[in-house]
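Here is an idea for our session: we take a single protein and study its fold together. To get us started, please write out a protein record for me. Once you have written the record down, we can walk along the chain together.
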Amino acid sequence: MKELIVNKEKITIRKAKESDAEVLIEYLNIIGGQSNDLTFGEGEFGRTVEAEREFIKNALEKNNALFIIAEVDGKVVGNLNFSGGPRKRIAHVGEFGVSVLKEYWGNRIGEELIRYLIDWSKNSKIIKKINLRVRTENKRGIGLYKKLGFLEEGVLKRDYLIDGEFYDSLLMGLLID
């Protein structure tokens, strides 16, 4: 668990628990409508509370997966999930997704979630590379990832299809030594 103060509010970053499933589904349904930078839009997340509970349980059982949330006064305001590869040859590398409620954008919550992931990866002795993909138009996200040491590795053409229009993604990676 990690705590920080941002704009006089105490933010707690902690590992998700199975009992968080219902509030996480509510949170994910909200953020899906707040940004086109996610892999899902409003009403598109498509996971039941039970399926989310199982997803969290699986993340807790694996030594190469992490699911964390950021809370303010018990309210989920951000999350990050990371999954390492399912087989021995690729267990050391994984990809993450991160999101923050729009009303909390600009408060370093996303940055702190990613820093938590990086520290966890270094301490895991398993994870040797963190990958991500980000829409090429998301300059703010790309700037944050570069600030944290991620390097550009390539572009996926037509990776997103939003309202009938294609968007490319930038692949980025961070080596963990």
The two ends are 23 Å apart (CA to CA). The mean pLDDT is 94. The chain is about 30% helix and 40% strand. Strands lie at 2-6, 9-15, 65-72, 75-84, 93-100, 129-135, 151-162, 165-175.
